[in-house]
From TrEMBL:
InterPro entries: N_methyl_site, Pilin-like. It holds the Pfam family N_methyl. It comes from Pyxidicoccus fallax. This is Prepilin-type N-terminal cleavage/methylation domain-containing protein.
Length: 235
């Protein structure tokens, strides 16, 4: 065989190649993290908007009470003040979900609704139509909250932005209940009717918001009680 024999890579060359691969991997991971922080809040807002729309449409179509229940700070284990929050969509076909009397076997009440365990109504009572834990988004990139810098205009001008303006108790929670005529009522954590402060439109509307973990993205929703109208703003 003529010519010089092929030699293998030296340790120095291998080290250089591995260093380049490590740098490229670090750059890719940084880009992925930035992408996750950007897309996670957008996806969360889209799903919450879809839940609000579905709740009202389902209530009108099936003449049932449909509850959108908000827990603004639980984690996936249901522990308060340990997570980014969650929401649950429950169809109450028998209009008894908020009754205070002892429920039949297998039937739930708002007072006994305890995620993640006690959340599934009996089949004849309704269905758990959808649910979402904010901690499921990559790197916990979004939570219920408000920065106070996103102001409402139009019919909701003066409405105070909030992660959940109607949520009370421990764990904090509240509910928007859409009815068969398309209207909505609001419940606090104890199951009592919630009447927003203010006059006119503001006395009949609540706010709900999502905030990215870096504080750069915010999505606010306003719900009007009399007609169930939902508006949104973002930055």
């Amino acid at each position: 065989m003529s010519g010089r024999a092929r030699r293998g890579m030296t340790m120095l060359e291998v080290s250089v190649v591995l260093a380049i691969i490590a740098v490229l991997a670090a750059m890719s991971w940084t880009s992925y993290e930035r992408f996750s922080l950007r897309i996670g809040p957008q996806n969360a807002a889209a799903e919450l908007s879809g839940a609000l729309s579905e709740a009202r449409a389902r209530a009108v179509d099936r003449q049932a009470d449909v509850w959108l229940i908000i827990y603004p700070d639980i984690n996936a284990s249901g522990q308060p003040n340990q997570g980014s929050g969650a929401w649950f969509l429950v169809e109450d076909r028998t209009h008894e979900f908020n009754d205070t009397n002892t429920p039949p076997s297998g039937h739930l009440r708002y007072s006994t609704f305890q995620p993640p365990a006690q959340i599934q109504p009996a089949p004849e009572q309704g269905v758990l139509a959808a649910s979402m834990y904010m901690d499921s988004y990559t790197k916990r990139s979004v939570r219920f909250g408000a920065s106070g810098t996103l102001a409402w205009t139009g019919i909701f001008a003066g409405l105070t932005p909030s992660g959940c303006s109607f949520c009370t108790g421990t764990p904090r929670r509240g509910a928007i209940v859409f009815r068969g005529d398309g209207s909505a009522r609001f419940m606090d954590g104890a199951g009592n009717p919630f009447t927003p402060a203010g006059v006119g439109t503001l006395q009949r509307a609540v706010s709900l918001g999502l905030l990215s973990s870096d504080g750069q993205r915010e999505f606010q929703f306003a719900v009007s009680g009399p007609v169930g109208f939902v508006d949104s703003r973002s930055r």
